[in-house]
Amino acid sequence: MSDSPSAYRRVLLKLSGEALMGELDYGIEPQVIQRLATEIAAAKNAGIEIAIVIGGGNIFRGAGLARAGMDRVTGDYMGMLATVMNALAIQDALESLDIYARVMSALQIHDVCEDYIRRRAVRHLEKGRVVILAAGTGNPFFTTDTAASLRAIEIGADILLKATKVDGVYDADPLENSQAKRFDTVTYDQVIADKLGVMDATAIVMCRDNELPLRIFDLMQPNALVRAMSGDDVGTLVCA
């Protein structure tokens, strides 16, 4: 744990939908989402303001069906709805731990959650609520990685944390190359030039142009989420 539990005032956490699957082939594994909620709650109780952007790949992947012949725009909207389902699951898990949470959607679904309005999201954070941002940017052709970069910039986050299944950024795929080297730090431009696959190029360029640091870390490591939110040197830091 870092010396200062509140090394960051406000963070945005990007979770992939696949992170919620655990050992399942599809959907949400209850034990995984409860562990995530427990770690998010620990960081929240340390005084950190937390926003979350969640993907929907555990339920639906619009790009995958587009390749199989479905209209891309239709597929992307279906994927956005999957992120809303995941966001509601995270909200429920957090509230079971007495953590106030709000789901805000880029698509209007008033019976289920609030509309995303930047000023209202910031106000929720200032009041100590975890804000879960669903439905990506609300536009087809934009990934949830891009949505995470956009929302982090909009709310004034100190850092964007991307939780993955690998322990950082490598110069090659560590699953295919045992000699792959992990970076402790890497620049935005190197990520783009070497196509390191951290996030899509639009998301990385947005981080670079707005000087938003990005940390990639392994969600499966015990307490990695709390450590990353507390400012510890876990995973790989992408910066200028």
Features:
19% strand, 240 residues, disordered N terminus, two-stranded antiparallel sheet, nine-stranded mixed β-sheet, 8 helices, Carbamate kinase, alpha/beta
Structural notes for this entry:
- It is a single chain.
- The protein is of the alpha/beta class and 240 residues long.
- It has one domain (10-239): Carbamate kinase (3-Layer(aba) Sandwich), CATH 3.40.1160.10.
- It has eight helices and eleven strands.
- The chain has helices at 30-45, 62-67, 72-95, 118-126, 144-155, 188-193, 201-209, 224-229; strands at residues 10-15, 49-54, 101-105, 114-115, 130-134, 159-164, 169-170, 182-183, 185-187, 214-218, 236-239.
- The protein has a nine-stranded mixed β-sheet, sandwiched between helices.
- Helix 1 links the parallel strand 1 and strand 2 (49-54).
- The radius of gyration is 17 Å and the shape is globular.
- Residues 1-5 have low confidence and may be disordered.
Oligomerization state: single chain
Strand count, sense and barrel status of the largest sheet are:
9 strands, mixed
> pLDDT under 50 segments (min length 5)?
1-5
Gyration radius from CA atoms, angstroms: 17 Å
